[in-house]
Structure formats: structure tokens, C-alpha cells
Amino acid sequence: MLTLKHLRHLDAIIQQGTIHGAAERLHLSQPALTRSLNTLEEALGVKLFDRSKSGMAPTGFCQQIAGRCRELLLDLDEIQREADLFRHIEFGDLHISVGRAIKELIVRNTLPEFVARYPGVSVTVSEGNHTELVDRIKRREADILLAGSVSYRSVEGLRHEPLRDIPLSIIVGPDHPLRGCAEVQFDQLAEYPLIAATSVSPSNPLLTAIDRATSKPAPQVLCGDHPTLKSILLRTNAWLPTPEIYFKKEIETGELCRLDLHHPAMKIELSVIELVGRSRSPAVEKFLDICRTYLESVEL
């Protein structure tokens, strides 16, 4: 008889590729997992894996059902999550994925307040590139993604709730040749290195505008650490598209400068991005309430 336990064991072996790895993930002994797999194969009357010294290779039939097995397990986990929400459980987990370009702006100014108010909630914050962030949302490993909406509009199965537009500026060092020039255009920046805090999807309008004007399809430096980016700006003629708030003090003192460049794509359309049809937990709602309050109060 096929059981939920069998499906979880099958999924773990597929994901890990070995009985040893799957047994560790499931906190089972290897003999117990082997017996479970043998029972499943006998119940189905079909061989699921080709065994070898290098690991477990899924058979054609196993590959055929692997996706449906995974989706079924995710749906069952979602049913349990919905039941928890219905009981209004506020103790639990909150997993936020965040785009690197807005990580410091949002997380640094909201997470301490959330933790102080709700110490019973276990919080995980993760970042990554466009592909990694989408994968976490689709695999339900993250409750929400906070990021610029534009790069994710072409991804199916996601819904977007706008929070606030965050204006971008071009930041340079005090000795940059274009400092003080009026109405700078992107093509004037072609001979200088482009640096950035994060990568964006190729369809991003700002990246498209920069590429057309400068033939720079990607930044010369990608680094999520703003102090490091500041050091690069001070030592080179590089230029950095970023929310000005990250370098507000440096601009006020003249340590760094903002170029007079304006373009419709110079903004981050900060949004909550999540799976269509997935309910928000109370912890997510409370965290977003804190985010909204902060974004309404801060001067960008």
C-alpha cells in the first residue's frame, strides 16, 4: 500500500542521490530506508532506482513520477500550514527572501523591531540572485520575497503587491570627470566602470537602458557590501546605480557625489512577491505592517 511516508522517502532519495544522504536527511537508519524503498517497489510492481556504488539513479518511471510526487508533498505541507494559520498560531517560522539591492534598506530597519515585538517567531533572511530567489519562492522555502518587481514580472505563478518606489541615483567619487556636469546621459558613462550591488534579470529596463547606451551588458564588479563599493568609488572613476539613502551622509559631506542623470527606469518598484494562491501567515502580515510603517516614514 502506497503511503505518505513512502513518498517522502522516495523524494529524499531522488533529491540526495544516495541511500546514505537520504537516510541522514530523514533521520533514519540506512537499513530502514532500504526496507521502505523495497516495500514501495513491491507495492508498485516497478523498479524505481538503478543501484550502483556511485549512488541511486532514478529509472525512467521514477523520473516520470518524481515531479508529481514532489508537488503532492508540497501540497500536503501546505494543508498543514493552512491548518496552523486557521488556528492563528503566531509562534513558528518566518522566512524572508530579499533582493540584495534593498536588503540593507528594508531588513536593517525593520527586522529588529519585528524580533522585539514577536520573540516567539523564528526568523530566517536569505538573499541571492534572481534565479535563486525565484526557486525559493516556488519551492515554498520562503514565505515572501521583497525585491524590485520589474525583474520578476515575466515569472509565472507569482503575485506582486507594490510597497513603494525607491528612486535610484548614480553615485561616483568626488574626483569623477563627470562631477558637476549637467544632464548627464548614460552614453557619457561608457568609458567608466559600472559597479553594482546585485545582478538583475536581462529584461530589467534600467539594465537595458545602460546596455544600449554604453554596451555594458553586465557590471564590472558585483558586490553586496556597500562599504566595499564605497572604497571602489573613492579609488576609481567607477559609477554605481543605487538608492541614494545608502550614501546619504557621504553625499552631504562631499565624500561621494550624485551625478545629474535622470531616466524613467531609475527606480526600484519595491514589492512583496509571493506564490499565487498561497495564504500569508500572521507572522508575514505583522512583518509587512512594520515594513509599510517604515517605508511611509522614511525620506528617500
UniProtKB/TrEMBL annotation:
<keyword id="KW-0804">Transcription</keyword>
<comment type="similarity">
    <text>Belongs to the LysR transcriptional regulatory family.</text>
</comment>
<dbReference type="Pfam" id="PF03466">
    <property type="entry name" value="LysR_substrate"/>
</dbReference>
<keyword id="KW-0238">DNA-binding</keyword>
<dbReference type="Pfam" id="PF00126">
    <property type="entry name" value="HTH_1"/>
</dbReference>
<dbReference type="InterPro" id="IPR000847">
    <property type="entry name" value="LysR_HTH_N"/>
</dbReference>
<dbReference type="InterPro" id="IPR005119">
    <property type="entry name" value="LysR_subst-bd"/>
</dbReference>
<protein>
    <submittedName>
        <fullName>DNA-binding transcriptional regulator, LysR family</fullName>
    </submittedName>
</protein>
<dbReference type="InterPro" id="IPR036390">
    <property type="entry name" value="WH_DNA-bd_sf"/>
</dbReference>
<dbReference type="InterPro" id="IPR036388">
    <property type="entry name" value="WH-like_DNA-bd_sf"/>
</dbReference>
<feature type="domain" description="HTH lysR-type">
    <location>
        <begin position="2"/>
        <end position="59"/>
    </location>
</feature>
<dbReference type="GO" id="GO:0003700">
    <property type="term" value="F:DNA-binding transcription factor activity"/>
</dbReference>
<keyword id="KW-0805">Transcription regulation</keyword>
<dbReference type="GO" id="GO:0000976">
    <property type="term" value="F:transcription cis-regulatory region binding"/>
</dbReference>
